[in-house]
Structure formats: structure tokens, C-alpha cells
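Course assignment 3, question 2. Fill in each field.
Student: A.L.
Task: Predict the tertiary structure for the chain below.
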Amino acid sequence: MSSPSDPEAPTPDPAAQVDPAEQAGAARTLVLGAGCFWCLDSLARRLRGVVRVRSVYTGGTGPATYEAVCTGTTGHAEAVEVTFDPAELPVDVLYDVFFSAHDPTSWNRQGHDVGPQYRSAMFYTDDAERAEMQASIVRAQQSYDAPIVTTLEPLGAVFEAEPVHQDFHSRRPDVGYCRVIIDPKVAALRRNYAPWLTEQPVG
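Answer field:
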């Protein structure tokens, strides 16, 4: 994945900063890595019940900037943080979209995007969420002949990616990566998950 340069560095998202909707129990937030975050970012924004989507870096200990993460040495993965209302969007539907949006049997790569930063990963916050994610892997495995290699990792510090990466597909649909890689995934989403789509994607 290539990206225009952006002078703004990401800032950490302290765990103490909890979304008011989540405090009220009306929403859940999941952090998922499916290769280049532009793809899952675009798909998640189109799902009914989704209230916020952020492209983020997580899973590592090194500097969380695009340039650093692209070296593959920071331990961070490109991931997408999705906040949604489970009453509108069942969590299993979100997991199914996640697995259909990338190849979870591919180790540390998605197409031409190669490196641990592009790993298939699910980041859990507690044992219950870990068990839920593990169950989703077992369910998804029925659709694949090769073993799913999606990692289950405890969620640590989350760093918001640079502004240029947020909602990239809708802002730069002319970019070749969007036309060749993301557009077909959006078309598949519309075919396979029509009942779960919203008429007004999250901006």
C-alpha cells in the first residue's frame, strides 16, 4: 500500500477516554486487523449500526507513525477500530464481514501488501471477548480449506493513524488501490450483506 505523505503524527488514544455511548452500554468497540486498513475502514462505514470508524495502529511497542509501521519492525498492525450498536448490527455479522474482507489464511500479507503490519488479527479486551473471537474463527474456518492464521492478541495502546488514512476510500476513490482492491470488496459487501447496510455511511 502506498500513501501520500502527511506531516501530522498520530497521537495515542488513552484507555481512560471512553466514548459516552459505550459508557451507557449502547455500543461496543472492536479492533480488527485485516491487512491495509483502508479496506476494512471503507466496509465498516457502510454497515448499519456503526457509529464510528477509525484507522489505527496497535499490537506493537515501537513508534506509531505510518513510516515506522511500514518498516515492519514496530510490532504494530494496521487495524480498524469499529464502534457499533449491537442492537442494530449483531457482532457475528461484523465478524463475518471482517473474515470476508480479507484472506485470513495468508500469513503476514494481503496481496501485494507484505509484512507483519498487514497481519490478520483480532484484538481482545477481556477473556469473554477472546472466547467470542475464537468462536468466530471456528465458524469462519468452515468457509476455508486452508487453516485460518488470524492471531488473537490482547488489546494494548491504540494510536490513531494520520488524518490522510481516515475514510481514505471515500475521499480518494480515484487512487488505483481503491479502484482495483477496495471497489470490488464494496461490491461484494453490497451483494452479500445488503440487509445490514446503511443508506448513509459513517463519515
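Instructor remarks: The two ends are 22 Å apart (CA to CA). The beta strands are 12-13, 28-34, 50-58, 77-84, 109-110, 113-114, 120-124, 151-154, 158-160.
Grade: pending
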